[in-house]
Amino acid sequence: MPAGGETVERVPRGTVIRTWLAREREKHDAPPPEGLTDREVFDALLGENPGAAAFLWRDAPVTCYRLTLSRARFDRLHVVEGPSDLRWRALSPKGTVRDCARRIDRGDPRKLARETGVDVPDVERLARAPPTADPLVLSTRRGAVPWHVADGNHRAVAAALAVERGATYDPLPAYLCVGANPVLEPFVQRLRGLLGRVRSPWDISKTK
């Protein structure tokens, strides 16, 4: 479970996926994912946004939580995972939401949009009244420090840009999805096996 002082509530993975897919469909006026099974919703989300949503199967099993981001947590958010020269990562060489906001604040929005492919003018528009109702979708792995914005990068950077320009931070809601760590998990399993072998000779429950 994430630590850091936030109020945390565990939620079903299906809730996160349905909420995310509904937002994706809103972008092109498609109907919400009603009447679909969890598997159909999952497949539809991968079809809509295969890159950002890939962690849901790549890092399975994924445990999801709903929380409100403290200012300290928000300041440490990273943009969506991806190649360093593409879109959000191109806008922020450091890979952070705050770095994106600072670069937008100090640069030319249209030039940055051409260079990175990010709709920077839309971020500027959102920053005038940052939306705070819809939860961001964040991804991380067990034992990993960075929390990446899988869905909601425009909204997150807009909120950071507003703060950069003097606004008070209004805590944002988020879904945090914690996946398996492909490096850490095998080590943990081996450690559990070793502890089991060490403990078993002393297990009095097996004596007659």
Protein model, in words:
The chain has helices at 13-26, 38-48, 55-58, 71-75, 87-91, 97-106, 109-116, 120-127, 153-164, 184-199, and strands spanning 8-11, 63-68, 136-141, 148-151, 173-179. The chain has 208 residues and is of the alpha+beta class. Strands 1-2-5-3-4 form a five-stranded mixed β-sheet. The chain has one domain.
Poorly predicted spans: 202-208
In terms of DSSP E residues, the strand content is 5-15%
Helix share bin: 40-55%
Gap between N and C termini: 40 Å
**Structural class from helices and strands?**
alpha+beta
Q: Report the radius of gyration as a whole number of Å.
A: 20 Å
Number of helices: 10
Question: Main traits of this protein?
Answer:
alpha+beta, disordered C terminus, five-stranded mixed sheet, 45% helix, 208 residues, globular
Ordered list of secondary-structure elements with their pairings:
Elements (H helix, E strand, L loop, with lengths): L7 E4 L1 H14 L11 H11 L6 H4 L4 E6 L2 H5 L11 H5 L5 H10 L2 H8 L3 H8 L8 E6 L6 E4 L1 H12 L8 E7 L4 H16 L9
Entry summary:
The chain is 45% helix and 13% strand. With 208 residues, it is α+β, with helices and mostly antiparallel strands. The chain has one domain.
